[in-house]
Amino acid sequence: MRPIRLAAFAFSAFLTAGAVSAAPSDCHLTKVAELAVRLDGGRPVVEGTLNGQPIRVAVSTGSYKTILSEAAARRLGLEVTPLPMAHHVITPGRGVREIGSAPVQSLSIGGWQAENLTMEVVPIHFGKDVDLSLGQDIFSQADVELDLAHDTIRFFHPQGCDDVPLAYWADTYAEATMQYAQNERRRFSNRVPVRLNGHEFLARLSTGTVYSTLSDTIAHQAGVYEGNPGVTTLGMVGPSDHEKYPLSVGTFDSFTIGDETVSNVKLRFTRFNPDFISDVGRQVWGLILGMDFIRSHRIYIANSQDKLYFTNVSRPVFDTQSPALQTPPPQTPAPQTAPGEKTAANP
Predict the structure, then answer these.
(1) What angle is formed at CA 284 by the lines to CA 139 and CA 158, rounded to 5 degrees?
(2) DSSP line for 112-129
(3) Contact 300, 248 (CB under 8 A)
(4) What is the set of domains in the chain, with CATH numbers?
(5) Which of 2, 15, 58, 123 qualifies as a FRET site for 23, CA 20 to 30 Å off?
(6) What letter would DSSP give residue 330?
(7) Which residues pair with 10 in a beta bridge?
């Protein structure tokens, strides 16, 4: 069987599901797919099939690639071939993880189907009963709308929309420009500049992370330390075979992403890994924007423009009250306009 990259199939097999318009009139968004997701442990999952057998798929915008777990490959009876050492993954605190590949006859996720492809197999646990993680090799091929307040993810192909705001659902919106430390043709994550107490660095948007978390390096540069008055400790975190670090909650004067600024914001912070670069710059990401932030916003990831468009739909923006992953996400009241949002033309 001829090996084919998963990304080569991704949107050629989607059926066109309709179109919406964004001003001006020559800008059209063709909806090529829509996924109805449900939250499991605070993370979005969707049902699918692999070689006709049911699988559970984690939707993870923070994952660089779509990968299958080694346990799922065994359960599904796939023949896994180890890849050369260059393909191994080194994770701080977890050692070297070997990557393999397996031929797959058919894969179906939501309304998407593909046949005769080769998938990477990694000995990683994605979550309870989750077999596959859907990553950036799929998401980067289209514009993606995260409407997770309504448990929906939509994929669009824009036409004639180069300079058009794409928050088609709203008259007001916030906007941020995405940046990439890697080759722009290989987008491993959605990264956006943010500011915390005036310090600028990159944040990564990740549906695979329940709670937004800041690097302690960034927190310290913003003047917030463990043990400071008003700083609370939720517990000690870290890989089971590595040193543990405190997970704390601190209050910061201001947090800004694009046109949206939140004052007196509380954020979790901890040590990301021992090798985190302390000299904060454009090439370093120091904040994971997790599902608490994503659910409190409706977000349009305009890969076609290297921009994010978003509207606030609930408060607080970050959840610092729920240390357990099983805690249900906050309810989402009626949409509201966040300070600093722009006015857009009607869709």
Answers:
(1) 25
(2) EEEEEEEEEEE----STT
(3) no
(4) 6-138 (2.40.70.10), 163-343 (2.40.70.10)
(5) 15
(6) P
(7) none
DSSP string, 171-233: SEEEEEE---SS-TTS--SEEEEEEETTEEEEEEE-TT-SS-EEEHHHHHHTT--TTSTT-EE
Give dist(CA 195, CA 222) in Å, integer.
10
Write out the two tokens for 183.
């080759």
Q: How many residues does the chain have?
A: 347
> CA angle 201-242-220, nearest 5°?
30
Residue 37 exposed, middle or buried by CB count within 10 Å (0-12, 13-18, 19+): buried
Q: Is this model's pTM higher than 0.70 or not? A: yes
pLDDT at res. 132: 95
The residue written with tokens 């990683």 in the block is 124
- Looking up tokens 């189907």, which residue turns up? 113
Tokens representing 9 are: 């199939």
59 contacts 153 by C-beta, under 8 angstroms: yes
